């Protein structure tokens, strides 16, 4: 939520040059995201307008600094004011009036574009239901844990760090949508669409069942719907077919498994729900433009010791 590197990210729209009070101790850049660990020292209190760009922004305050801790408040519509908490989210294309006190703070800030991470769900582009002030102090253990994992990875990079970070950001994007999607009123969707609760149920069942597939009848029953109606309602809500979403979920699982260099391609295929290594390779190449081993090499991950000719 501080001044960042490009117009896709959040930026301070007015005020003095703050470059002398911010230091970045770790950063990872990618076309789909920017993740950074930063220490900010405000020599005096002040205020400014902050504008987010086209990306989602999540910030976690890491620990209390040795000196005086800075505090933030944000003013919204009708003069309402909210205190910035430990874990905060700002939706794309949001303008906030920020006030801060003298002091310092360390945080990890993630800015990401869900679509560029491969999440094509239409709801990832619609954050109108998010209360800007209510999202400035999130109580969500999954989000906080993922942010802490990202912090550790930035501070002490492991093998195939880029792939690890991409996988964790995908989890972060999914949990962010789940957190705020679940807060939507039950009747916030139109006729022929799933409610937020029904959509969350479908996604949870699909993700938790991996590598197995969930029968359509079981998904529909969990939503209290006839099996013949669920596919159309899912597509009306999300913008992609249920079949396409299931396929994308299997690919997302495979990407995470590929970060483990001990697994052969055929093992990754089986654990992510594919019948064979050849079927997995064909589906993965269609989804990403790369064969699984190319994906590993691109992200700095060598082949598993016995993984030769498996694609």
The succession of helices and strands, N to C, reads EEEEEEEEEEHHHHHHHHH
Find the structural class using helix and strand composition: alpha+beta
Topology, number of strands: 10
CATH class of the largest domain: Mainly Beta
Coarse shape: flat
Number of helices: 9
Give the helix proportion (percent range). Answer: 25-40%
Largest sheet: 5 strands, antiparallel
Tally of domains: 2
What's the CATH architecture of the largest domain?
Sandwich
Kindly report the CATH topology of the largest domain.
Jelly Rolls
State the distance separating the first and last CA atoms. Answer: 44 Å
| Uncertain regions spanning at least 5 consecutive residues | 1-7, 12-20, 182-189
Mean pLDDT: 79
The CATH superfamily of the largest domain is Jelly Rolls
Compile the SSE list and pairings.
Layout: E1 11-12, E2 22-30, E3 33-42, E4 46-51, E5 56-61, E6 72-75, E7 81-83, E8 87-90, E9 95-100, E10 103-112, H1 141-155, H2 161-181, H3 196-209, H4 216-223, H5 230-238, H6 242-258, H7 265-271, H8 277-288, H9 292-298
Antiparallel strand pairs: 1-4, 2-3, 3-10, 4-9, 5-8, 5-10, 6-7, 6-9
Helix pairs in contact: 1-2, 3-4, 6-7, 7-8
Structural overview:
This protein is α+β, with helices and mostly antiparallel strands and 311 residues long. The protein folds into 2 domains: 11-143, Sandwich (Jelly Rolls); 181-298, Arc Repressor Mutant, subunit A. The protein has helices spanning 141-155, 161-181, 196-209, 216-223, 230-238, 242-258, 265-271, 277-288, 292-298, and strands at 11-12, 22-30, 33-42, 46-51, 56-61, 72-75, 81-83, 87-90, 95-100, 103-112. The protein starts with 10 loop residues before the first strand and ends in a 13-residue tail after the last helix. Mean pLDDT is 79; it is low at 1-7, 12-20 and 182-189.
């Amino acid at each position: 939520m501080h001044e960042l590197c490009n117009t896709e990210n959040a930026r301070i729209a007015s005020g003095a040059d703050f470059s002398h009070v911010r230091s970045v101790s770790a950063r990872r850049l990618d076309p789909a995201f920017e993740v950074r660990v930063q220490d900010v020292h405000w020599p005096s209190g002040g205020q400014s307008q902050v504008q987010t760009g086209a990306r989602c922004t999540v910030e976690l305050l890491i620990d209390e600094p040795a000196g005086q801790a800075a505090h933030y408040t944000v003013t919204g519509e009708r003069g309402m004011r909210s205190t910035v908490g430990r874990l905060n989210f700002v939706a794309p294309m949001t303008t906030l009036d920020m006030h801060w006190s003298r002091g310092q703070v360390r945080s990890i800030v993630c800015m990401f574009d869900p679509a560029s991470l491969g999440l094509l769900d239409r709801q990832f582009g619609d954050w109108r239901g998010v209360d800007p002030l209510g999202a400035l102090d999130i109580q969500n253990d999954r989000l906080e844990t993922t942010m802490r994992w990202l912090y550790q990875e930035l501070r002490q990079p492991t093998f195939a760090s880029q792939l690890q970070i991409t996988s964790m950001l995908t989890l972060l994007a999914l949990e962010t949508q789940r957190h705020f999607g679940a807060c939507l009123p039950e009747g916030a969707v139109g006729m022929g669409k799933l409610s937020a609760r029904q959509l969350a149920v479908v996604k949870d069942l699909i993700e938790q069942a991996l590598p197995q597939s969930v029968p359509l009848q079981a998904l529909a029953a969990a939503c209290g719907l006839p099996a013949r109606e669920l596919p159309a309602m899912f597509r009306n809500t999300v913008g992609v077919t249920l079949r396409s979403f299931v396929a994308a979920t299997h690919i997302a699982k495979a990407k995470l498994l590929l970060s483990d260099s001990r697994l052969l391609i055929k093992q990754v295929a089986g654990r992510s729900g594919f019948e064979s290594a050849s079927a997995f390779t064909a589906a993965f190449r269609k989804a990403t433009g790369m064969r699984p081993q190319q994906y590993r090499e691109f992200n700095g991950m060598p082949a598993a010791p016995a993984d030769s000719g498996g694609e």
